[in-house]
Amino acid sequence: MAKEQYVNLEKLDKFSGKGVDGTKRMGDAELKVKFSVGVTSTFRVNAVVQDADPEYSETEKARNDKFDLSPSAEMSNDGETEVTVKSTVPLLAAGGVKYTFQAMSDEKKVDASLELEARRKLWYQLFAMKGVPVGHAPDDMEAEFWKPDNNHYIKMEKVGGRTNIPFFKTIDAIDRSQKAALYRLMQSKYTLKGKDPYAFVVGFLEYVAKSKIEWHEYEIDLNTWPQGCLLTVPLDDEYLWYDLNDSEDDRNAWFKAGRLKFSYTDKDGNPAVARYGISRADVTPDWQEQEAEGGRDKYKIWISKEDMSDMATRASSGKLNVRAKLKLVKSFLGGFSAGGLNVTVNSTKSWWDKRGAERIKKTLIHEVGHKIGMVADGAGLAPDKPDDHYVGQGHKG
Fold it and tell me: Where is the composition biased (Basic and acidic residues) (predicted)?
């Protein structure tokens, strides 16, 4: 029966454990072959591919010697008639490949009894903010990267149970300080340093979104003069950064600045303008059709009795222009793979509602795929770039 060989691992004791029985089951193959020869001879041992040949291209082989099968180093029997050849034989980087081994001298060939099947091994630690459900996504991810039908053969091992970190509702993906704070929380409870560089973090939280700050304008005809006015301002398919951060909501942090401009014709027939300030105390978020947990696509401004009275003294009608600097939602993200760190982050909610289990699963697989280089760029030690590689085409995942 073939033994599993974890071809990506360095031969270090710290990687021994579940499914990996010592350094012999890591990296290149180790084997002994006994020869009986009558003269001084040299020996080499070849790995012979029996199944799932990955068929690397010539350019791939030129970039990475792990893409090109080569024999062991040459050895001599130093004149001995009975010799046991102890050899380390290079193996390909691919998973799923089945190998037998053949030792050759100047006089004869001997088939070794060792049979190996190539595997890859990675470890991960599961983090989640308190109260955030994880579901079956990690199990689904493990199954996907093992998937024999795709010749992945990557065994993902979760070490320990769920590691909880403090809850906060949203990570703003454009705010480096927020992401850095998240990474520090994870680092403080990270237990897999001994498995690096073959270990990574899978993190779950509620929302990952991107904010933007933009000026927004709205204009109406004005010809009535109530005793104070509550003006509703629609946002035209935009959403306020609201119901995403409770402390920001409490102080109306989505509203940065604003003013009212009343344009009218004065008593002499000349165009004129009057301006009035807007404070955070004057504004309230509102919605057209609320989502399950929010989604504010308009807001209201209280225009005071004094300002309305001032406009009325200037003209019987005119145009009222609202200009406000607002913090808006640019987009929601399913997750991201942290550049330069062994961290993936996955959201469980989007657009103020729960994300479905299938979407969460696909996001997790996608982000872990980024982290372990599943989409090759054709540079350095990586395989050739596929025809549908999406760099320069916008993100397709």
Answer: 58-68
Confidence of residue 394 (pLDDT cuts 50, 70, 90): low
More confident residue, 84 or 174: 174
212: Cα separation from own chain's centroid = 21
Instruction: Give the closest residue to 202 by CA, choosing from 121, 142, 126.
Output: 126
With residue 354 as reference, give the H or E element that holds it: strand 353-354
- Rounded Cα distance, 352 and 336, in Å: 19
Task: Supply the pLDDT for residue 73.
Answer: 87
Tokens of 337: 């793979």
Integer Cα distance of 366 and 370 in angstroms: 6
Q: How far is CA 365 from CA 115, 202, 236, 342, in A?
A: 31, 10, 34, 15
Q: What is the mean predicted confidence (pLDDT) over 12-28?
A: 94
Report d(CA 337, CA 375) in Å as an integer.
13
Number of H helices, E strands in the chain: 6, 21
Token pair of 181 as six digits: 């704070």
For 250, the token pair is 């409490």
Model confidence at 189, in pLDDT bands (50, 70, 90)? very high
Integer Cα distance of 347 and 188 in angstroms: 21
Distance CA 389, CA 247 (A): 41
Kindly state the tokens that stand for 320.
């009222």
Domains and CATH numbers, the chain: 3-118 (2.60.40), 120-208+332-371 (3.40.390.10), 216-331 (no CATH)
pLDDT in tens, 272-309: 999 999 999 999 999 877 677 889 999 999 999 999 99
pTM of structure:
0.87
Res. 172: pLDDT tops 70:
yes
User: Within 10 A of 370 (CB to CB), how many other CB atoms are there?
Assistant: 16
